[in-house]
């Protein structure tokens, strides 16, 4: 069988022939025979040119079983997958075609492309500036973030403008609640600087009453929120997440970017939630920088922000029990003991609770969320600072309190309590720990007090008096500045008494030597200091229970000053 002609040889032969060489010379130069040169000149050197490739180059690996067994199955039920067809082939012919799964998969895909049912088409949507903003919640999967070494349960609120792609992400503690939606959306609109005409979400239970049907009712809170910002609320159909693809697709891209940024940072742990939020904002800033030009075009088309925000909290009320606690959403919180007996109005945010007495905020608590299996029991949020004063007065109550473990601030204090119980009697240990907690609460020296206790325990020199003396609160002199004061002469007060008697008040003169000397009545101070009691006057006193109205009125103005009562003097002084 002659060797096939290469395209380079044909090209060289044609080029040499066109330059004026003979057929024999051109064939020799191209390395082909004269007979092949004749076929090239006649155009018969490629007899299969233009013919469809309908012949096989190797034997059928399935030995015709595709046409006999598998293809009829697909014709009866096009929803069958390649894996199912391959398992059927193995069952009918065990051990013969175990390595032919790729062949079955290729032929199944080819058959469905030629004879299968039509697939769903994703239409490219045209977005207009300022028209739509989209919101959704996202969860981090594949990696976990910690705050001060402890697992941080949270979700992310994600907002995106459909036209420009400008984004905002906020950390939300708890689930997909209206509080998280309201706070995240309002913060996003404020950061954006404008409001779109349409707000689109999926079927969030915080926004819709998903009772079935194509037109579910809006919740009252979400309806009020959209009305306040003049947005039209819309949502995608149930179970059709790609209708909200403008935000769904951004979830995955943002989470990959966040994960890469955390890898680059070298740690998934943060000092606080605020530090974690700041880190997310840095990642979002880099993404928003890529769409800055389109955002600059969209910003003027957005509606202006309203003057005020709508409330992004839930209002509850609770009465402070005699235990100095309140119960909120199956979680027990301690509050300052001065609030015992009062009913507080509570504003529930996703991360905190603010308590009001009337319109005055009196307490702010970190909100506790129960996750996973912990939902089967009630949770507690105990702060020793709220009850430190009572614990100091009732040290033995610490021994039997149900919150004993929660009253100790951290692991270091738990270890100190165990050491105190081992080194002292239980009552004395309770007095020491409660006094230490009181000092830590009132002086805000939690770590310093713990270090002092540990040092004294190691040296076996810990005493209650020594603990009090070590942290005795010394007031600096700067807290009490010297205020100049002047001690007035008692004679100056006689002018007030003289004014009460109706006599004119003397006017001081700049030249006291030439001032006329006026005679004043006897001063009270001189009368009280005098040892001369004067003439003793006996006055008749009526005995009985007669009404005072029947007694003749007294005319004190006719009496001398020496016999006036103290009551009359007070009446005169009250006039001034």
From TrEMBL:
Residues 125-312 form the Integrase catalytic domain. Residues 1-59, 543-563 are annotated as: Disordered. One of its GO terms (biological process) is DNA integration. InterPro entries: Integrase_cat-core (IPR001584). The keyword tRNA processing does not apply. The keyword Nucleus does not apply. PANTHER family: INTEGRASE PROTEIN (PTHR35004:SF7), TRANSPOSASE RV3428C-RELATED (PTHR35004). This is Transposase, putative. It comes from Acaryochloris marina (strain MBIC 11017). The lineage of its organism: Bacteria, Bacillati, Cyanobacteriota, Cyanophyceae, Acaryochloridales.
